[in-house]
Amino acid sequence: MTAPVQAISLRKGRLKRPEMATQWQLMWWKFKKHHMALVGMSLLAAFVFSAVFAEFLSPAVPSERNNSYLASGPMGIHFFDAEWDFHARPFVYARTTKRDPVTLRKLSVVDESNHWPIEFFVRGSTYKFWGLFETDIHLFGAKGGFIHLFGTDTLGRDVFTRTLHATRVSLSVGLAGVSFAFILGAIIGGIAGYFGGMIDNAIMRLIEFIRSVPSLPLWLALSAALPREWSSFQVYLAITVILALIGWTHLARTVRSKLLALREEDFTLAARLSGCTDMRIILRHLLPAFMSYMIVDVTIAFPEILLAETSLSFLGLGLREPVESWGVLLYAAQNVRSIAHMPWLLIPGLFVVFAVLAFNFVGDGMRDAADPYSK
User: Fold this and answer.
1) By percentage, how much of the chain surpasses pLDDT 70?
2) Which of 113, 122, 329, 349 has minimal CB crowding within 10 Å?
3) Measured between alpha carbons, how far is 98 from 180 in angstroms, rounded to an integer?
4) Tens digit of pLDDT for each residue in 242-271?
5) Using one digit for the tens of pLDDT, what is the confidence trace for 279-337?
6) Is the peptide bond before 288 cis (omega within 30 degrees of 0)?
């Protein structure tokens, strides 16, 4: 094969010769061999998709209440009815209400004699998609009735709908916190590793002090200091900043250790002799040299910030109503009585578990891919 043909094949992605591939191509080939990392990336893609299109995927809006189905369990989707007759269109059994003779509380009862077929692209509650335009089209709904895949809470709100909207908030908090922590860690760690001396000692002592404080009491103290009269958006921003101010230390130590090894390399000396400023050398020459390792650290740090937000909201010190996040939804399942009578309120906790596992799997795969020449 001649050189032009080789170049064309390489551009089309047909030639996988390591000696002709770029660093990013080698990393991608190595990453694809990590099957659990691909599974984790698929899960994260599903989470992101559900977060972006939460309004459309939900059969209702988060604040909508169904007084005919208060604190009731998930509604199963069926293809076979009670007589085992097959239905091509999936359906849910109808629900009727009756009074508990002891507590006089309304109870929802399954009516197997009546079916509510599930339809797609139906009209329902009006919402604004990302606050831009108003529509009432939902992906699915029950004709002639209602559908609650994850059940409802004590106010009759759909847990499935609230979980999808909570996915958007929780992931956005984690993304914003990680981005802020990434910037802080890269800048502060870069200054410590490049200049060294007293600056390095001062920054390292600060990092050691922050990491020596137990995380949970520190989160609780900072979150408790937030004014209670703040709006949900202000609390959202404050929690994001708090998590970022605590989460930058690990990345800063990684950047510092890498810069200590790279600042005496020949390309660094050549940039310094050519008249480049210190900030340009750090940002344009040193940091890109180990950007893959920084991406791995950010991927691993994402679950920590996600768990921190969930923990604070679960304890009532983070985000709070009317904001939906995984921690806010789990706040309703704090006591044994709620778990005993409404175990479906723990479903958002499964989303937290799967998200953390997915990020860990992707982080492991990226850690291996960061060194594509290793066996």
Assistant:
1) 90
2) 113
3) 53
4) 778 777 888 888 888 888 888 778 888 888
5) 888 777 777 777 777 777 777 778 888 888 887 787 777 777 888 889 888 888 877 77
6) no
Asked if 297 and 250 count as a contact pair (C-beta separation under 8 A), the reply is yes
- In this structure, what is the dihedral angle of CA atoms 183, 188, 190, 195, given to the nearest 10 degrees? 160
Residue entry with tokens 């609230």: 162
Domains, the chain: 66-157 (no CATH), 162-369 (1.10.3720.10)
DSSP assignment, residue 19?
G
373: its two tokens: 């020449």
Contact (CB, 8 A) for 137 and 56: yes
Q: How many Cβ atoms from other residues are within 10 Å of residue 154's Cβ? A: 12
User: Structure tokens of 288?
Assistant: 């890109």
Q: Which token pair is 206? A: 């600060």
Calculate the dihedral angle through the C-alpha atoms of 15, 18, 23, 27, rounding to the nearest 10 degrees. 90
CA-CA distance, 140 to 142, in Å (whole number)? Answer: 7
